[in-house]
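Try this one yourself first.
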C-alpha cells in the first residue's frame, strides 16, 4: 500500500501494488478490498507529508520512519518527506536517514550544507530526495533571492534575536565551528577571539554604520574631509572613529563677533 509504486501509466497499475487489485476481470469481491487499500495508501502519503513525524537521532544525524516505508533509495527518489526536528540542528553537515536506508545529506540548495540553527526544534519542514546526487533538499527554503544573506546586518526593534541564526553584534567572541560559514567569510577581521576556537563579531554599539571609503577599489575620501579622527579608519573594514562630543579649539571656531554696550548699567526694579 504505497503510492511510490504507482505508475502514471494507468495500464501499468493493474498489479503495481500487491495489496490493490485493479486487474481486468477481477473478482467482484475484491473491489471493496482494493478501494479500502487505496484509501489506506493515500492516508499514508498524507501523513508522510503532513509534518507530524518527529525525528530521532542527533542534531546532525536525524532519523525518521515513514508510513509508506521506503525500501530503496530508488523508490525514495523524487519523494517528499515532512518531519519535525526533535532538536535544533548543530554545526557541520546535517544528514537525514529515512526508514533506516542510510543517512543522506540534508541541504538547502545544491552543495549548500545547513548552518547551525537552521532547523528549529518543534518546527515542521519538508524535504525532497534526489537520488542523482544522493541528497535531501529542503523545499523552497533558501530559494528566495531576497532572503537575508549570511553576514548581513539590519535594523531590528526586538529585545532578543529572532532565532539562533541571528545575534546582536556587540563584539563578542563566538565559536569558529558553530559559525563556520561566517568565520570562513569574515575571518578575524573584527577580532581573533581566543586565537583558536573563537572569533569576534563587530561591535556596533553606539555606532552609525558607514561603508568603507575605498569600497569598489577607488577612494571616495568622504570620511576624511573635515574630520581627522576618521582618517585612520576610513579605509579599514570594521574600523571605528569619530566622537560623540567635541570641544572647539580657537582655530576651529567660525568667524563671529560680540556686541557690547560700554555704558550699560544694572536695571533697577522698584519693589515697594
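Now uncover the answer:
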Amino acid at each position: 500500500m504505497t503510492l511510490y509504486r504507482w505508475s502514471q501509466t494507468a495500464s501499468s497499475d493493474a498489479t503495481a501494488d500487491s495489496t490493490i487489485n485493479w486487474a481486468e476481470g477481477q473478482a467482484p469481491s475484491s473491489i471493496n478490498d482494493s478501494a479500502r487499500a487505496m484509501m489506506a495508501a493515500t492516508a499514508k502519503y498524507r501523513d508522510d507529508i503532513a509534518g507530524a513525524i518527529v525525528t530521532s537521532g542527533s542534531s546532525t544525524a536525524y532519523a525518521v520512519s515513514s508510513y509508506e516505508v521506503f525500501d530503496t533509495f530508488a523508490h525514495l527518489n523524487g519523494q517528499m518527506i515532512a518531519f519535525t526536528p526533535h532538536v535544533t540542528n548543530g554545526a557541520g553537515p546535517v544528514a537525514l536517514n529515512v526508514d533506516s536506508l542510510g543517512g543522506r545529506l540534508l541541504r538547502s540548495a545544491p552543495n549548500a550544507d545547513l548552518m547551525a540553527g537552521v532547523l528549529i526544534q518543534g518546527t515542521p519542514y519538508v524535504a525532497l530526495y534526489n537520488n542523482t546526487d544522493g541528497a535531501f533538499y529542503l523545499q523552497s527554503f533558501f530559494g528566495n533571492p531576497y532572503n537575508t544573506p549570511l553576514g548581513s546586518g539590519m535594523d531590528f526593534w526586538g529585545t532578543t534575536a529572532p532565532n539562533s541564526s541571528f545575534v546582536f553584534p556587540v563584539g563578542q567572541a563566538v565559536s569558529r565551528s558553530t559559525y563556520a560559514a561566517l568565520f570562513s567569510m569574515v575571518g578575524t577581521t573584527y577580532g581573533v577571539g581566543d586565537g583558536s576556537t573563537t572569533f569576534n563579531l563587530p561591535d556596533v554599539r553606539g555606532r552609525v554604520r558607514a561603508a568603507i571609503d575605498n569600497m569598489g577599489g577607488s577612494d571616495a575620501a568622504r570620511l576624511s574631509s573635515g574630520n581627522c579622527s576618521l582618517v585612520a579608519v576610513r579605509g579599514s573594514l570594521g574600523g571605528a572613529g569619530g566622537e560623540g562630543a567635541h570641544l572647539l579649539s580657537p582655530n576651529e571656531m567660525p568667524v563671529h563677533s560680540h556686541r557690547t554696550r560700554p555704558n550699560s548699567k544694572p536695571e533697577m526694579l522698584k519693589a515697594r
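Discussion: The first strand starts at residue 56 and ends at 57. The mean pLDDT is 85.
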